[in-house]
Amino acid sequence: MTISAVLFDLDGTLLDRVTSLRRFLAVQHAKRIAPRSTCPLDLYQHLFLELDQNGHVWKDIVYHHLIVHLQLEGVTVSVLLHDYISEFAKTSVLFPETRHMLEQLRVSCRLGLITNGRSDLQRAVINHHQLQTFFDPILISEEVGLSKPNPELFLRPLIHWELAPENVLFIGDHPLHDIKGAEAVGMTGILKTDHPVVASPSSYTVNDWSEFEPLLIQLNLERRSRS
């Protein structure tokens, strides 16, 4: 029984979130910070990323602490936050070979997207990169009222596709929200990571998309050998 569908996370999986943030913060620093402060760009970026905690801290809190810590004058949380909401998607970038991988994969598999986050921000990124052309369904936590790792959220695409969990892969970068959540409903989880993994919660990992096709072939061979 081969893989029929693949579900993806967005941030940190398809979207290179750290690079995207650095690009956005460089634009914001030049526009808002450099004209009124001696704070260097690298410090502004470093402190933002540290306070952001990989997206788990909302940006009004991040910007409040930035302003206080860096003693920024003449700029407000609301102005910086408006920049983020309206401009981040425009400077965002996907990981290398993401579009090529999706183009190849959709020939043989159904594709879906499940992401935690605000609808306006996630939709802006999805639309900017035209990812809606690859995925059906697209489930965003704010829109559906469910967040990973809630099992119901993982099961919704399976109902839509009329597929069993063992026919579906989930690829994400968060060990708990993505991998454990997917495995809890019977899917195979693949951890997408840029770093060496010690004691991974998943039996499978990919560091870049060139590794995914050989892994998919391996998984399908394993399934055929058991059938």
How is the secondary structure organized here?
Elements: E1 5-8, H1 17-33, H2 41-52, H3 59-70, H4 77-91, H5 98-105, E2 110-115, H6 119-128, E3 138-140, H7 141-144, H8 151-161, E4 168-172, H9 175-184, E5 188-192, E6 204-206, H10 212-226
Parallel strand pairs: 1-2, 1-4, 2-3, 4-5, 5-6
Helix pairs in contact: 1-2, 1-4, 2-3, 3-4, 4-6
Provide an overview of this structure.
Helix 9 links the parallel strand 4 (168-172) and strand 5 (188-192). This protein has ten helices and six strands; from the N terminus they run E-H-H-H-H-H-E-H-E-H-H-E-H-E-E-H. By secondary structure, the chain is α/β, with parallel strands linked by helices. Helix content is 50%, strand content 11%.
Termini separation: 7 Å
Q: Could you spell the SSE succession in H and E letters?
A: EHHHHHEHEHHEHEEH
Looking across the biggest beta sheet, what order are the strands in?
3-2-1-4-5-6
Which quaternary structure do these chains form?
A: single chain
Number of H/I helices: 10
Mean pLDDT rating: 94
Tally of strands? 6
Major sheet summary line:
6 strands, parallel
Percent range for β-strand residues:
5-15%
Q: What structural class do the secondary elements suggest?
A: alpha/beta
